[in-house]
Amino acid sequence: MQISVVTLFPELVSAGNRCGMVRAAIEKGRLTVAGYNPRDWSADRNRRVDDRPFGGGPGMLLQPGPISGAIDAAVDEDGGTRPLVVALSPQGQRLDRHVIADWAEREQPLVLVCGRYEGFDQRLLDSRVDVEYSLGDLVLSGGELAAMVVVDAIARRLPDVVGDAQSVVEDSFEADRLDHPHYTRPPEWEGRGVPAVLSSGDHRRIAEWRSEQALMTTARRRPDLFLQHGPTDNERAALERHWLAGSNDNPGQPTDTRLITGGGK
Ligand SMILES: C[S@@+](CC[C@H](N)C(=O)[O-])C[C@H]1O[C@@H](n2cnc3c(N)ncnc32)[C@H](O)[C@@H]1O
């Protein structure tokens, strides 16, 4: 899969390419990440790419010319399927795992465009960008970290990159549920033990325990996941067992009783 990153700081993105899953994906030939610096398309002899906003106001804006030059070069470079041009912006749609999974599964070539200063000239967005995506309701000083989040989240979903593919399938959000708690050695740490079932060797009971724990964590922390994708009949029964019976394992209460009474999948 080909990802091009249009950025004033290609060295920042390259640093991410040298670590962890992104590095593994690149080394296994599953992913190519190329940087395009808009300064290389600046007409200014000092390679300037910013200017004051029309109408006044604080800060500087990226000029459209150098950014469009870098985007056009990245699009042309790809040669095959036309890449999707994505601007990273706090005004974009919220990035989530569905978007990432879709891009990774289709190996959709991407051009990720990183803003700086006050962001992009609107004409650049109108003429070159297919879609804007945001990391969430916070403002970064540049799009590079957001682009690196996209690259990392995609890399771990590409075939043969994560050692045990099952671990990706069991991650939070995969089945619209959060992950279950994990424990490793030592069996006792600072006076805290490990749930006995995990040492029982009974794989059916372990799987049941994990799935119930994932269910409870989701209900307590992210009931919105349930409200979008209602609990199955089995999950509803487990929730009733734990909460309505006042289970010691899970003393919390669901924040929304529709979790228990809502329609099943
Ligand atoms: C300081 S921000 C510009 C913010 C812009 N003036 C606004 O209020 O929408 C500079 C750049 O950082 C990136 N950025 C900031 N917050 C982001 C977010 N939540 N998600 C993705 N990119 C973000 C964008 O590329 C943006 O152009």
From TrEMBL:
Enzyme Commission identifier(s): 2.1.1.228
Ligand binding (S-adenosyl-L-methionine): 115
Any Gene Ontology biological process: methylation
Keywords from the UniProt entry: Cytoplasm, Methyltransferase, S-adenosyl-L-methionine, Transferase, tRNA processing
A Pfam family reported for this protein in Swiss-Prot or TrEMBL: tRNA_m1G_MT
InterPro entries tied to this protein: Alpha/beta_knot_MTases, tRNA_m1G_MeTrfase_C_sf, tRNA_m1G_MeTrfase_TrmD, tRNA_m1G_MTases_N, tRNA_MeTrfase_TRMD/TRM10
Subcellular location: Cytoplasm
First-level EC class: transferase
Composition-biased stretches (Polar residues): 247-258
Main location: cytoplasm
Keyword Hydrolase: no
Region feature (Disordered): 244-265
Catalyses which reaction(s): guanosine(37) in tRNA + S-adenosyl-L-methionine = N(1)-methylguanosine(37) in tRNA + S-adenosyl-L-homocysteine + H(+)
Annotated GO MF terms: tRNA (guanine(37)-N1)-methyltransferase activity
Presence of the UniProt keyword Disulfide bond in the record: no
Highest taxon in the source lineage: Bacteria
Domain tRNA methyltransferase TRMD/TRM10-type: residue ranges: 1-227
Job description of the protein: Specifically methylates guanosine-37 in various tRNAs.
Subunit structure: Homodimer.
NCBIfam families reported in the protein's UniProt record: PRK00026.1, trmD
Family classification: Belongs to the RNA methyltransferase TrmD family.
The protein, known as: tRNA (guanine-N(1)-)-methyltransferase
Gene: trmD
